[in-house]
Design a protein that fits this description.
The structure holds two protein chains of two kinds. Chain A is an all-alpha fold. Chain A contains nine helices and no strands. In chain A, helix 2 packs antiparallel against helix 3, helix 5 packs across helix 7 and helix 6 crosses helix 7. Chain A is flat, with a radius of gyration of 21 Å. Chain B is built from nine helices and ten strands. The chains are: A mainly alpha, B alpha/beta. Chains A and B meet through helix 6 and helix 7 of A and helix 2, strand 6 and helix 3 of B. Bound molecules: adenosine-5'-triphosphate and magnesium ion (MG). Adenosine-5'-triphosphate binds next to helix 1 of chain B.
Chain lengths: 223, 245
């Protein structure tokens, strides 16, 4: 009973709920902006890697590898605490979205590359033989086929980005986690943290379930 | 009739492995040329150089309708004039048969969609699959898919059609329907270059038969020349092998 009162105190939860929901909104804002930036960046990188001259290809590969190696927390702290020394001062929101977007673009680029490579070579040849430009080859022929393949891993990546938004709390962003820790301090009770954890699960569980179903569906191979 | 395709000293190698050893060939407008030869002799590579699906050595020169085949802006013009039909069809699986046929004229020739559709339906009727227009390629038989591929190539109103073993991936009972379409086509005066193992087709339809071996043209002539009085021993042994298999 005592345990329940400590970790799942309904009164504390009820009182902190508005604060947690404000945090949730911030979390979702960070997530959506980062996901969109990552998607656009990743698609551009993947297509550029296909058509760029050799030095460009190499640069993109280096970018992709670096931003998949660097821990997101380290990158975020560099962006927020180190860049001001060279005169680049980003707000907590901009810092978080920059760090998340850069990393998400790297993963997304790899996902799109794999998707594009999974399209049979004959499709590129048929498009080329008909005289399609590179742009139309991509937009009409290749990407519509690659999209089916990349939807599950892309959704997975979105889940990761949403989870990683919690790191924003280290740069004083009032996201869900930050609001929960503040509410915990105020109430001198850990229930808001449990509440935050539950909200993350409620937010992400459906997406996790959808990925699972999509993967099953696509592996059945409707091609 | 004028020369449509001119090939001069065509050389191609993969690394140090030479696949084509200097091929010279002129193809006249309206001519139907069949290319025969053993596996690995370079037949596919030869016709894939014509629309630059394969690059080739810098000393070599190919022109199509007077346009030099080389990477760059002019290549799109060459490819618009050169249709290609592949062994494995390579239809676009995510769009209907109709859209497969009408898309390239819209995207490459800026055709109006309504006109492109009307022409596509017309072409599908010509290759005998008008009723399948709204289906997806995966729902068609191999023979039907290859006929769609021919219609798709024709929709660009190319000056020349290249075929790379168009019937080799088909079940035997479907070979005939595709060859029939190609025979009809040959009768309409389109220039055709056909890599094929169908000797009956070559004999009946070709204006000229080219026998390749080891990356060279060994012998070329009328079907009667090649099939009845081959001059080279290699041609004779190849024909013996394929005709008595
Ligand atoms: N991408 C490649 N890399 C290396 N060698 C290749 C490549 N493509 C083709 N070759 C080689 O080039 C030679 C000619 O190939 P090509 O496909 O033109 O022959 P082909 O006459 O069309 O044969 P087939 O009747 O089997 O289709 C072959 O020896 C083949 O192994
Ligand atoms: Mg071949």
């Amino acid at each position: 009973m005592n345990l329940l009162n400590t970790f799942f105190n309904l009164r504390v939860l009820w009182e902190s709920l508005p604060q947690l929901l404000w945090g949730l909104i911030t979390t979702i804002e960070i997530g959506i902006v980062s996901i969109i930036a990552g998607l656009i960046g990743g698609l551009v990188l993947a297509v550029a890697r296909l058509y760029a001259p050799a030095p460009g290809k190499l640069l993109i590969r280096i970018y992709v590898d670096i931003f998949r190696s660097i821990p997101l927390l380290v990158l975020l702290i560099v962006v927020y605490y180190a860049l001001p020394f060279v005169g680049i001062r980003l707000s907590p929101f901009a810092s978080t979205v920059t760090a998340l977007g850069l990393v998400s673009a790297a993963y997304t680029a790899e996902i799109f590359r794999a998707g594009i490579e999974a399209v049979p070579h004959g499709q590129f040849e048929a498009a080329a033989a008909l005289g399609f430009s590179n742009r139309h080859t991509m937009s009409d022929i290749i990407l519509p086929q690659a999209i089916r393949i990349v939807i599950p891993p892309l959704t997975n990546n979105c889940i990761n980005v949403l989870k990683d938004t919690a790191l924003a709390s280290v740069v004083a962003m009032p996201d869900l986690l930050k609001q929960a820790t503040q509410a915990q301090a105020l109430a001198a009770n850990p229930t808001p943290l449990i509440g935050a954890a539950l909200i993350y699960v409620i937010l992400l569980w459906p997406m996790v379930a959808v990925v699972g179903r999509l993967e099953k569906h696509l592996s059945k191979g409707r091609r | 009739m004028g020369t449509l395709i001119s090939i001069r000293d065509l050389r191609k190698s993969y690394g140090t492995f030479a696949v084509l050893h200097g091929i010279d060939l002129d193809i006249a407008e309206g001519e139907v040329v069949c290319v025969i030869g053993p596996s690995g002799s370079g037949k596919s590579t030869l016709i894939r150089c014509i629309n630059h699906l394969e690059g080739f050595s810098a000393e070599s020169a190919i022109t199509v309708d007077g346009i030099k085949v080389q990477p760059g802006a002019a290549l799109a013009r060459v490819r618009a004039e050169v249709g290609m039909v592949f062994q494995s069809f390579n239809l676009f699986p995510h769009m209907t048969v109709l859209r497969n046929v009408m898309l390239a004229p819209i995207r490459v020739r800026n055709a109006a969609p309504a006109e492109a559709e009307a022409k596509a339906r017309d072409l599908l009727a010509r290759v005998g699959i008008a009723e399948q227009a709204e289906k997806y390629p995966g729902q068609l038989s191999g023979g039907q898919q290859q006929r769609v591929a021919i219609a798709r190539a024709l929709a660009m109103e190319p000056k020349v059609l290249l075929f790379d073993e168009p019937t080799s991936a088909l079940d035997p009972e479907m070979v005939g329907e595709v060859l029939d379409v190609m025979k009809k086509l040959a009768g309409t005066g389109v220039t055709m270059v056909v890599v094929t193992h169908e000797m009956g087709f070559a004999r009946q339809v070709a204006d000229r038969v080219i026998f390749m071996d080891g990356g060279r043209i060994v012998e070329s002539g009328t079907p009667a020349d090649i099939f009845d009085t081959p001059r080279h021993e290699r041609t004779r042994s190849f024909l013996r092998a394929v005709l008595n298999h």
